[in-house]
Design goal:
Pfam families: RPAP1_C, RPAP1_N, TPR_RPAP1. The protein has 1229 residues and is mostly helical. The chain contains 53 helices and seven strands. A three-stranded antiparallel beta sheet has the order 4-3-5, with no helix packed on it. Helix 11 runs parallel beside helix 14.
Amino acid sequence: MLQRPKPSDSEADLLKEQERFLVSGAPLAAKVIRRPDKRRGGGDGGGGGGGGECQRDIVTIEDLPDDMPSLTPAPSKKSCSKENRVRFEDQDTEEVLDKHDTHISAVLSRIVVSIYCTASLVVLCLCFRLFHVYSFTYSLLSPSISLALFMSRSPPPPPALREASGPRLPSGPRLLSGEGLGGPDRSAETLRIHQENQAMLQTMSRGEILEEQRKLLAQLVLGPLMVSLGAMLRASILTPEALPPSSEEDLPLKPEKQWVHMGKLEPDKLEWTRDLPGPRRKGTQKAMQARFDFAGSLISPHEDLPTHLGLHHHGEEPELAGYSLQELFLLSRSQVIQQRSLSLNTLASILTKARAGQFASALSGSVMTTLLDAGLLFLLRFALDDNVEGVMAAAAHAIRALLVSDQDEVRQRFRSVFFSPLGSQSSLSSSSLLSVPSLSRWFQGLLRTGLLSRLRYILEVVRPSPRVVQDLLAVLTRISRHSSHAATQVLDCPRLMDVVMSEFLPTSWSAPSLHPPPSVYGLPLAGALKLLRVLATSGRHACARLLSSLGVRERLSRLLSPEPGELLLESGQALRVSAEAFRLWAVAASYGQACDTYIPGPEDPAPPPPPPVSWGHVGGLQAPLVGQLKGLVAGLDGPAGRRESSLALIPGYLHCLGAHYHQLPKQVPSLRPYAVRPLLHDSSSLLPFPRSCSAVCDLQGHGPGPEAVPSLPGLASAGWKDGPGLAVPSSPFPLLTALCVLLDSITGIHKGLSSKFSGLLVSEPVIGYLGSCCRATPNLSNASAWVLRHEHHLLYLLVRLAHRVAPKDPAVARHASLYHQVAMALLPWLLPGSEHLAHDLLCSVVFSKDFLPESHSGGPEALELAELKLHAGAPHLQAVGPLLREACVQLPSLRGCYLGHLAHLEPSVLGSKDAYLGRTPWVRSRLLPELGPGPALPADWPYLPLVTLYERTGGGELQVEELPRGALQAVTHCLQWLLLLEVWREGALKAVTPVAKLARLSCVFLSASDLFLERPVQRLLWALLRLLTRPDRLDSLDLDVAPPGLASFQDLFSALLVQYEAVSFGDPLFGCWLLLPLQRRYSAAMKLAVFGEHVGALRSLGVTLEQLSLPLERYTSPPEASLPLLQLYFRSLVTGGLLQARCPLLYTVALAHLNAFLFSEGPAQQVSPVAQRVRVKGLIVLKDHLLLFRGPQQDSALGFHTYQQLPPDRAQRLERALGTPDSSHGGTH
């Protein structure tokens, strides 16, 4: 038999196969026909060509026609390209095109109005006066056949219609083809139907025909057939030739004789002058496309607006007012200048309203996401290159609406006023929260398009209107806020900063004659100063460039010397310019720069320079500050307006006093406590329900709004001012934070004043708020990180005050446990940039015995007594009480252990400490660090010594003597701290899942070959194993979830099995650790690994039932359903690999599952082989144990109890499986 060539055949093989084929004489599957080339003048015949002509080889296959068969009965089209397309009879061309359409319009059309019609879409009976249509099936027929059947079912018209007279219609049928009609008289039947339709149309006026047409087309929603029918009706029935001529009365305009070319009446050309039909809801369940007016507001689909507003156009739905996003995109590329400007301004308004959340309840979908996916950013960038100033202005306004959020700017100003303690990291800029990877790509791409150069050109050459200048400065500020790299690109752009400094920050100017001025060129702008401040925030080097190279130092002197009213500007603009100048100066001073702005330099270099400025020069500042504070505190009892203004100003005074006393500790004794005592005594009324405003607790469920885009994170959500929150004017957090800053400075210097301020720490609002924080799980995101930093700082201040006051005040000491829980919860929450706070908490509160009252109030003794009552009959179990007592004694050593393992964070700690304490010479940047992988400390930081040792040692082949110095002591301290947390601070480890705890503790077995055999380590591991296997915690242990850092728990279990076989020496602790994942509720894969690949481990897995801290039922119930595992159970029992003396627990488990399978109600063919092998084998003990097994019993010597004699039902079941009676089923056990 001849074979097809293979890819591996050589040339010799191919030649051999060809020779075999020729010898066989088999017929050819293809023939070569020589045809002349017609292009060279050849004839039609095969041999009619000339001898010298070039001929082609044409391969033909027998029984294959030259032309492709038609897939549809429809006539072929005239287009050659369309003839070769493959179409199916149930395929809708329009639907296929929409499905594969990737044009921008396909993306923009996703924004739809959330209005749905309740009408059903499965109506198969349409009653129409013109054509009586009844139910039919169109999916099984071609369109032409279905149409013929549809028309053949039309009942004859009433006699009145047959006898009616009127204008005659064309005699030939234009709609009916007659295909599908059976019988020899198909043509006559087709003509008869056509004549009946003609007669019916003649009796109707033009208005009636148009009305019936509208009704019919409105009901054509049943599929491709009815859509085709509607198109045919629209194209053929209602043509001018088929309609009766209209009279002048039916026309919307009355023609006059003097009009040119109006002698002949043409109704179709005048149809556009008729009024549009009123808007209506679509008769479908598909939502309608959203439409907007020129102000960016959403237009209701059923709202009837007048046409003079300019919102009607020749689009897809001319009767609906407004423009869709798709139409606005198309309009933005129009050749008409006004249309381009109008569309861009409309898009800007839509973006502004979308950011404000005005479309959340009306639209299904996100406007921002849809526009960005459709390429809005590049559309606006292209529009910015337009040579028309109006289009450029509209594009700049739209880019500002996309990138800049006015609500974010307002919220940042509020934060800078109320949360600005001296040197605190809370005063750092929030710019870096915008530096997420996706947005970084966007900005890099935007900057690579030459955006900065284009903005410089517009500012320098075009010199646009004031609004455009403000928009461009806001865009530059937003770009500079992204990252230090983006700020450097703004500084490096040629002539950009020179234009900003010369045109919008001049050193001299004249007062404008008009307000507002027609041009802002030559006047100082607050937006330009804000841009400089953001650039200075990016780093001390950028700030030095601004001060020295760009002349910012001279501008500061010019703007800060006079009062705001003397700046020759409008009052509001002057105040904004002065405020921004002070903010810029404050940023420069935070680097230690521009501090000598108002110190005159010596004219003669010979005299020594004046002494540097020190805090002693402002020693007299205390008296006026305290006086003003007393007046504001007294104003709290006044009217509501005065009370609100006092609450807004008091935090600033408290921050200033706190910084003053921090730098001048000698002036603390002169502080009169009555200055702040009303704030402390009236804390219940001044600090009402801080939990409702907390970002950590998030009781109101504040989250990103519907228009939040991950690649454009913001600081504020829509409506943030209306509800409770941490950064709203009505929030108590600014006052509470400022008060804690002042008290922290005072108590850190004057210990005797600590007891006077303890009332704040034990007040009911504060205690309730701290309790809620301990139970909370804050949601960290780029948008919430900045506000969480402020609340973390407040919690740190409260814990620090409690640490200072608790040893001297019994009232605060009673809440020491609560404050310790807050400290433990706060540690894994602290974000990058707060490493100094974490280090201070570890050094002070976390390992303080004063904040562990259980350690010296009988806690270990009470726990030990409870254990004696609970485990009176299990003396082998390690008691937890003595271990806790030892751990409490070792608390200082535990602190040193963890500080040593966190030594790699020392550079971050020092950097954050410099920023927190305001050490200006060492502050590199005022930008907050990026979030990166998450908080500064991982959630499982208490397990850090174990994980570190495992990563350093590797495969666990080293012995304890070969481990790094201090490794054994570090492991012991880590286990002691974990035991203490598991017993007294269980909530501190709530973020660590049970499977993660088990995986981290397993590092002890994998780090060294004999580390787990050390007595202190083994005692602590036994205690932790008991805590992990308590019923309430064991139920939450899910081994199907991969532990953090591992692909799956099964991989870890395989490594533990290998380590057990190598170095366990039958250790019961290691054995219990391996038995924990072998419970019945977990995957059978780990049990298959034990009884299959690592069956040798069964010889040393001698954990007794007394040593097991788990109920035996967790291993035996429910019965095993895996046949491969049951076979392995039986094989290990028969071969002697699993013996009751060596592995009693798994021996009982295997017996239980095999016995349940043997006497189950399953098919006999599955049970019979097991029963036959039990009968054949001569192991009497195995037969007795397996057949007479009754159930597990943990307190029995065998671990199970048996029947004295096999019950009758089981004996019958066994006999049926064996096929013969079995007389050896009695027993004595």
